[in-house]
Amino acid sequence: MGVRVSWMLAFGWGLAAVVGAVAGMMVAPLQFLGPNMMQAILLYAFAAAVLGGLDSPVGAIVGGLLLGVTLVLLGRYIGYIGSTLQLPVALLLILVLLLFRPGGLFGTVETRRV
Predict the structure, then answer these.
(1) Tell me: the pLDDT tens digits for 20-34?
(2) pTM reported for the whole predicted model
C-alpha cells in the first residue's frame, strides 16, 4: 500500500536527466560546441557544492549564492579580477574554506575510529 521505492528512484533519475538535457539545450547557444563545453560551469557548480558542504543540498544552494555574489563583488570592486580570473578566485575560495572548515559551511565531518 505504499510507494514503490524503485519506481521513485527511477522517476527521480529520469527527471534529473530531463532537467539536465533541457539545461544543456538552453546553455548550448551561449557555450559553443566543443570538448570543454561545460568545463567552467561544472567547476563553478563543484566550487558551490564544496563551499556549502557536499552532504547538504541546502548548503550547496547557499554556497552557490555565496560564490556568485562574492565573485561579482570582487570583479566589480577589484579592478584586475575580470572574467579571466573569476575561476581561479573561485578555486582559491574553496582552498581557503577547506583549510578552516573541511566539511564546508553546512557539511559535517565524520571521524571513524579504527
Answers:
(1) 999 888 887 776 767
(2) 0.62
